[in-house]
Amino acid sequence: MQAIKPESLKRCEDDMLLADLLFVGIGGFSGAILRYTLSKYLGKYTAFPFGTAFVNLTGAFAVGILAGYAGLSDRTNLLFISGFLGSYTTYSTFMLELYSLLQKKRLILFLTYVSLTFAAGFFFTLSGYWIGQHGLSFLL
């Protein structure tokens, strides 16, 4: 029986780190493209930032489902939660849009957007988590 050499363990850790980064990167690339496309399409004809609200709320729902489902592997979490949903949802754009609404003195839209995003986002996350834990059996 051969002894395991420390340098072979290091190479194994590096390979796992590289694979993890690849999963996050593929998910991130996909999520960013979808967010950009939806934000541009949905926010095109209105002063209210529907595109960002939509991606943040659907992202909150999706992360709830994934977090509530206990059967996901670490790599699946990296791909979908850290990668895809991490780039699909966008806190920085949300903050910039809030600032823009205040600058334009659109206080009602500002308050609506803040309330909608936080209240509905929390509700969507809780709903998604519940569905992730129970599946769709409650419908049957």
From TrEMBL:
Regulation of protein activity: Na(+) is not transported, but it plays an essential structural role and its presence is essential for fluoride channel function.
One of the record's GO molecular function terms: fluoride channel activity
Catalytic activity: fluoride(in) = fluoride(out)
Residues reported in the UniProt entry to bind Na(+): G86, T89
Taxonomy, superkingdom: Bacteria
Residues annotated as transmembrane: 16-38, 50-72, 78-96, 108-131
Biological process terms in GO annotation: cellular detoxification of fluoride
Cell location: Cell membrane
Function: Fluoride-specific ion channel. Important for reducing fluoride concentration in the cell, thus reducing its toxicity.
Name the record gives this protein: Fluoride-specific ion channel FluC
Species in which this protein is naturally found: Metabacillus lacus
Gene name in the database record: fluC
